[in-house]
Amino acid sequence: xxxxxxxxxxxxxxxxxxxxxxxxxxxxxxxxxxxxxxxxxxxxxxxxxxxxxxxxxxxxxxxxxxxxxxxxxxxxxxxxxxxxxxxxxxxxxxxxxxxxxxxxxxxxxxxxxxxxxxxxxxxxxxxxxxxxxxxxxxxxxxxxxxxxxxxxxxxxxxxxxxxxxxxxxxxxxxxxxxxxxxxxxxxxxxxxxxxxxxxxxxxxxxxxxxxxxxxxxxxxxxxxxxxxxxxxxxxxxxxxxxxxxxxxxxxxxxxxxxxxxxxxxxxxxxxxxxxxxxxxxxxxxxxxxxxxxxxxxxxxxxxxxxxxxxxxxxxxxxxxxxxxxxxxxxxxxxxxxxxxxxxxxxxxxxxxxxxxxxxxxxxxxxxxxxxxxxxxxxxxxxxxxxxxxxxxxxxxxxxxxxxxxxxxxxxxxxxxxxxxxxxxxxxxxxxxxxxxxxxxxxxxxxxxxxxxxxxxxxxxxxxxxxxxxxxxxxxxxxxxxxxxxxxxxxxxxx
Length: 494
Known about the structure:
3 domains, N-terminal domain of MutM-like DNA repair proteins, six-stranded antiparallel barrel, 8 helices, Thrombin, subunit H, 494 residues, mainly beta, 32 strands, eight-stranded antiparallel β-sheet
């Protein structure tokens, strides 16, 4: 969930250090010495698992990726979380070649895109060395990206272009990222970013030469909390704000001329709970940091950053953050409890992990939940390729009486559904007069036909507004379709 659709960043020079108020080039060890120091700290992680075709959700195949892991201490190999959903086997390889060791997943947090893996055989750790995560993700010298390639530990020089607040690859929560420029070869799967003898981050994504890395200052608290068994998950700001750069807006609310902040424009409401913030509140400071009219604060380590970062800076879900606001002509301080980041918080959730996709087949009509797994099935540049109306629901709010949506994704042709074969990507509104938000609602509604027929109604704006089917023939048609198209089950509902 992005409270404001923009990213605010500040450029950094990757290899400058501050000395007596000026800048000078920091000394950097040779590339060969850097590589030699990490040969026993970095391993190849191969993850094999089940891949699903979200256009045919009953279909499955085998997927396998190789990524990079870095040793933190015996029993802990740090990696990104990508690739671990629905995994069936993990293998580890040291020194870039030779023996493969069976691994096991110790913990994974998809929202932070972090995972820790261990080897099943303790002997794996006999000659391994521990890497050190830098408490601050600020370079102490030249930057390098490391990974095993063709039996050699490849080192690529990198330039830090900016610190930025971005959402994670597997979640919508915003947190600090490092953006670097490097000629890294490969997709960007956990490669290790180092400065000197310390790890500054692990690579999470790559587009051209632009690479995003999860910084060590974000990783360390998550790892340490998991070690202690008290990791409560990431929190976020669930209110929506807009920049306070229009002085007329602040003047209308009576905000003093010298005050700065952003305007709260929407606050979610839950039954039985009184929101801490109200629309038209002006947010002046968060957690002791002043907020400017663009929604930025000055981070003591990384400069100007978007205020969303303060939800994950030294805080977990459930923590109460002090907010200073302007409300009804006066300054107030309120305590804001950070809600926990949950996939179910969104109308179009990021999607379920470690479970097969849900679907219902009824008379050849295929119904699926509207989630990000379905949208991303359109592949690269899915934001442009996905049907507009489906993508539009990402901007809609989750409501108490409509927490999610169901889509008629396609129709498997049969005599029973003759005339509707081309119907697809229609958002279901009601079935037999019953509002449908989940597949459970759909299944219950199909048990209550009206006048011997099933009436399916779709959201306004879709080309086809309704479908009428003979209720007495649906069960037989469903079984016929399953046999014809070799589908093992008419439904999967979690």
